[in-house]
Amino acid sequence: MNQIPRIVVTGLKGQVVQSFVEQGKGRSDAEVIPLGRPQLDLKDPSCIDGVIRAAAPDVIISAAAYTAVDHAEADETRAYAINAVAPQELARVAKALNIPIIHLSTDYVFDGTKSTPYTESDRVCPVNVYGKSKWEGERSVAAGTENHVILRTAWVYSPFGRNFVRTIIRNAESRTELPVVMDQIGNPTSALDLTTAIIGIAHNLLASDAQVLRGTFHLAGTGDASWADVAEKILALSQGLGGPSAKVNRILATDYPTAAARPSNSRLNCSKIARHHGISLPYWKSSIEATVRRVIQHRTDLEVRK
Q1: Which CATH superfamily includes the segment(s) 6-162+189-221+267-282?
Q2: Cα distance between residue 304 and residue 306, in whole Å
Q3: Interval 161-182: pLDDT, tens
């Protein structure tokens, strides 16, 4: 292994990959190398082997995914190509190179009917195409190499890309009231917190062959909330920072029909990863405050430049 481990991350534009790039800047203990289109096109499995090998990684992080949950219902072939077939090839390359792979998955592999947070041993039963394709990706990675970590996370947000925080703030610019679902509960997760933790997990895998460090884990923000709870927190923070605000109208999921069904309970029990990797993420309210502050500051900067 190189003195400074080379961590290859799939993707270029997604919020998780952008968070990896930011968290990798200036680090002396890791070199983060994002790989995406056109160089690495996950819809074309034949290109994966050569591109990954050329990057000479010490760890592969399978972060890129088809995440348009509603669109996946009508775009099943593409969703499976990116979320299931590509991870299978990445795992094969990782095994051939004798290096670990960390694969990001989702709370959507569960149906949401459990009344308590999901553990890694709970029955998987996805209710939409996105969740089914991600579950197939998990199975492909686990079958492809024993030297893997599958990380299920949930409700990811960041200062980058498309996510709930940015959408709520943008919608509040033009609307005085926002309908937000109150009967779906999960763990809001900062992509910046998540990627920092994953770099730590990569170091753990490189430092030890222990089997307890490998397998499937849950990793999400500490504390749970409904979408409506999160929206109210975002808007209160935005208003306090001089940004847009609006009233949240709490509605039921049945009042907001979507193409894809969603689990009502997305809460993840993250005690296993805390026990074996010594990692837990911060309380969601503190992390979301930092993100809202950055989003509002970016808006202010854009206004000043006009």
Answers
A1: NAD(P)-binding Rossmann-like Domain (3.40.50.720)
A2: 6
A3: 889 999 999 999 999 999 999 9
pLDDT, one tens digit per residue, over 129-166 is 999 999 999 999 999 999 999 999 999 999 998 899 99
| Vertex 196 angle, CA 194 and 200, to 5° | 110
Q: What is the pLDDT of residues 44-101, one digit of tens each?
A: 999 999 999 999 999 999 999 999 999 999 999 999 999 999 999 999 999 999 999 9
| Cβ atoms of 62 and 119 closer than 8 Å | no
Marked catalytic residue, from 130, 157, 256, 283: 130
Please list, in sequence order, all residues whose beta carbon lies within 8 angstroms of the beta carbon of residue 240, skipping any fewer than 6 positions away.
Answer: none
Q: Report whether the peptide linkage leading into residue 159 is cis, meaning its omega lies within 30 degrees of zero.
A: no
Q: What is the C-alpha to C-alpha distance for residues 244 and 76, in angstroms, rounded to an integer?
A: 37
Domain boundaries, the chain: 6-162+189-221+267-282
Question: Which residues, other chains included, contact 161 with Cβ-Cβ below 8 Å and sequence gap of 6+?
Answer: 13, 14, 15, 18
Stated pTM of the model = 0.95
**How is residue 290 written in tokens?**
């930092």
Alpha carbons 150 and 90: distance in angstroms, whole number: 13
Examine the residue annotation and report whether 118 is marked as an active-site residue of this protein.
no
